[in-house]
Design goal:
The structure is a homodimer.
Chain A lengths: L1 E5 L6 E6 L6 H4 L7 E7 L3 H10 L5 E7 L8 H13 L7 E6 L1 H13 L5 E6 L2 H5 L6 E6 L2 E8 L4 E5 L8 H18 L1 H15 L3 H21 L14 H11 L6 H18 L5 H13 L12 H9 L11 E4 L5 E4 L4 H10 L4
Parallel strand pairs in A: 2-9, 3-4, 3-5, 5-6, 6-9
Antiparallel strand pairs in A: 1-2, 7-8, 10-11
Helix pairs in contact in A: 3-4, 6-7, 6-8, 6-10, 7-8, 9-10, 9-12, 10-11, 10-13
Function (chains A, B): Catalyzes the conversion of 3-deoxy-D-arabino-heptulosonate 7-phosphate (DAHP) to dehydroquinate (DHQ).
Enzyme class (chains A, B): lyase
Cofactor (chains A, B): NAD(+); Co(2+); Zn(2+)
């Protein structure tokens, strides 16, 4: 087991990474301050891992809420089911919410914890690779709105994260690839050595080798933690973590939430960012080729869905959160390991990039 | 005009108090950082004050959302109408929400600001006396749930508060009295001199004398600001601000939200706290008498509604947020100007207090 600490002053917390962590009472209990604990999970995860998680929480007033599985349920109605459960069981402000599941469960349970009685304690047990490397660090929580993704939410830090690599055994290949997309992202934005390590070890990762996974998860969390610690509220360099996301959100919204996985959309989005950067003259063709190769080896799509026109794509990008008063700003690359936020790109080159990237 | 500053480090902000402040561009504009401004108000306030507020915001991309008036609309559905409006107008994270109205509007718009895109800027223009002395300071925002009041929310500080005493001219007498209840509360919990000032000047306040109102609003905000600055997240002495609230919430919930005004319920709740304190031997009969007199002169009810049994009352108190693992704790009085949080009271005396306090 590896343990990292996300340093945020009085809200610092540990991330434990390794096999067999689910239900480790010695890791969970120091993060719980009251008697009431609510596990929030979904219909897919509950039969697989709920019993093990409950075993680590015996002795508490333990309740469970089991939500339907899927990005389409990441909304205010599902959030309200968590509030209902908390209030029906008369949970007080010293209660703890435990998110057992992927990113959707973490975002829902995290926002419920941020807003129930104006904020209660929160533990994350992410069960997907994506959630282990993304949602574990940064404190972002929230739900979608019909007019935009993650439009309603809060920053709320967990007290502790357990990333149990055993839970990755039941992930399907698409979900694994989606997590690998975020892992590749950390290499691309700020860690060229890690990118080179990924080029060497991608086959071990897709074969779910435990040691390789622990290394990649820890290195990803460490990269994210460094960025977040420097910029908790996302004004400056934290925006670099959105590499691929403005493009990716357009795909997710255009295709309907849940059709593409978030990580798949971000993977293609990162390649689009690389291709636009190359057209700007900031990246050379060999670097774009290395990025596309690594994404392909990870099992990720690299083309815009045929159903989406360039015009629709551009329109969807404009509603993304990263649109400031000053116009559309994108995370682009000036090299592998060197991302920048920039509004200083040629809109014609953006259009040309999208035109060229269509599938089929 | 008086200006106070609520000192909260980088989130410090001014409260301007006086006549003719509505629409003062020189006060509003320093608190706005983007181009997009959304005024959130209700159907009662809009015809009275919306035009004046808009006049101070010319030059911005200004939108307005007008909600129905009443505590019964302080819920997730109404909150969602604000999100809808923000997204339909493509408001970005640099936008500012302006709450123009009483406490319900402030709580709704404040929580929308806290949660829209994980937090945007927020200005309060409270138009009731209660909101001017209560919601202006402390950063509490949120909505009700069918199973409890203010159960969903966040701490979110405004950038600026304009308390325009001219808006109090259109308040009905019940609303004015509700605000006076909170003003009396500051005297009771920590400011015996202010309580004595209120005994001398209550007739000027009920006659809506501008100078008396400015003094009372400023002194109340100052008291609250001192408490909040010392304890932003409500762990210690901030709990004293809940004097009368556990009793009051029971009345509000038992009678149905909106039947009693919040301030009316808190007024009666403070008297119940004083009566229980007297039964404990902590307060003498003369002090209870002074409190009841002042509440009566302010135009406030001092009896539990006849419809509510003592058993129902006790049951509703138990679901209140102030119930910790350790059992029910109440804010009680050890003198005028000397409140304490205590779980150390005799439940039989609580029952006797409630039995004796019924109307009719």
């Amino acid at each position: 087991m590896k343990t990292l600490y996300v340093e945020l002053g009085e809200r610092s917390y540990p991330i434990h990474i390794g096999p067999g962590l689910l239900g480790r009472a010695d890791l969970l209990q120091p993060a719980i301050h009251g008697r009431q604990v609510m596990i929030v999970t979904n219909e897919t995860i509950a039969p697989l891992y709920l019993a093990a998680a409950q075993a680590g929480l015996s002795g508490y007033d333990l309740q469970t809420v089991i939500l339907p599985d899927g990005e389409q349920y990441k909304n205010l109605d599902t959030l309200n089911r968590i509030y209902d459960a908390l209030l029906e069981h008369r949970f007080n402000r010293k209660c703890t919410l435990v998110a057992l599941g992927g990113g959707v469960i973490g975002d829902l349970a995290g926002f419920a914890a941020a807003s129930y009685q104006r904020g209660v304690d929160f533990i994350q047990i992410p069960t997907t690779l994506l959630a282990q490397v993304d949602s574990s660090v940064g404190g972002k929580t929230g739900v979608n709105h019909p007019l935009g993704k993650n439009m309603i939410g809060a920053f709320h830090q967990p007290n502790c994260v357990l990333a149990d690599t055993d839970t990755l055994a039941t992930l399907d290949d698409r979900q694994l690839a989606a997590g690998l997309a975020e892992i590749i992202k950390y290499g691309l934005i700020r860690d060229a050595d890690f990118f080179a390590w990924l080029e060497k070890n991608m086959d071990l990762l897709t074969a779910r080798d435990t040691d390789a996974l622990i290394f990649a998860i820890a290195r990803s969390c460490l990269n994210k933690a460094e960025v977040v610690a420097a910029d908790e509220r996302e004004s400056g360099q934290r925006a670099l973590l959105n590499l691929g996301h403005t493009f990716g959100h357009a795909i997710e919204t255009g295709m309907g939430y849940g059709t593409w996985l978030h990580g798949e959309a971000v993977g293609t989005g990162m390649l689009l960012a690389a291709q636009l950067s190359a057209r700007q003259g900031w990246l050379d063709a060999g670097e774009v080729e290395r990025i596309e190769q690594l994404l392909t080896r990870a099992g990720l799509p690299t083309r815009i869905p045929g159903e989406m026109s360039t015009r629709q794509f551009l329109d969807l990008m404009a509603v993304d959160k990263k649109v400031m008063d000053s116009g559309l700003r994108l995370v682009l690359l000036k090299g592998i390991g060197a991302a920048v936020v920039s509004g200083d790109f040629d809109p014609d080159l953006l259009r040309a990039t999208l035109d060229a990237a269509h599938a089929g």
